[in-house]
Design goal:
With 140 residues, the protein is an all-alpha fold. The protein has four helices and no strands. The protein has one domain.
């Protein structure tokens, strides 16, 4: 009885400290999932404006949907695992850097609109990583 009471008290105490971290993870998962679904479902409509092939967009959509599910799962754990969050942060940073490299090197031949979209996504993903880092720091 004492152990379960102590565990419940610890969970209640850590909840406010995890608030920013959970919010950052859930926002990341939601935005990433919506973006992935858009790429997957609207690839034929997006390929010309973005200058990226429908196949590339669909593949990216699948990857984003899987990542979104994993991020949601990380954010739903009690407690939120530090190593899992660090992995999400690293993957977000790699995605952002890769996106900027893609836009700057014209890999995949994005249009100007596509290049701007890619860079904007990198900014958003970097912001999620920053919020996640802040959430980890606040929790410590």
């Amino acid at each position: 009885m004492t152990t379960s009471t102590a565990a419940a008290n610890a969970a209640r105490t850590s909840a406010p400290a995890d608030g920013l971290l959970r919010l950052a993870l859930r926002l990341d998962a939601a935005v990433t999932g919506l973006n992935g679904a858009a790429y997957l479902l609207a690839a034929p409509l997006l390929d010309n404006p973005l200058g990226l092939s429908a196949g590339l967009l669909r593949g990216t959509g699948v990857v984003l949907l899987v990542f979104a599910g994993a991020v949601w799962l990380v954010g739903s754990r009690r407690p939120v695992g530090t190593a899992a969050v660090r992995t999400v942060i690293v993957l977000n940073v790699l995605w952002a850097v890769g996106s900027v490299v893609l836009a700057l090197t014209d890999a995949g031949t994005p249009t100007a609109v596509g290049a701007v979209w890619i860079v904007l996504q990198a900014v958003v993903v970097t912001a999620f990583a920053g919020l996640q880092v802040a959430g980890l720091r606040r929790r410590s």
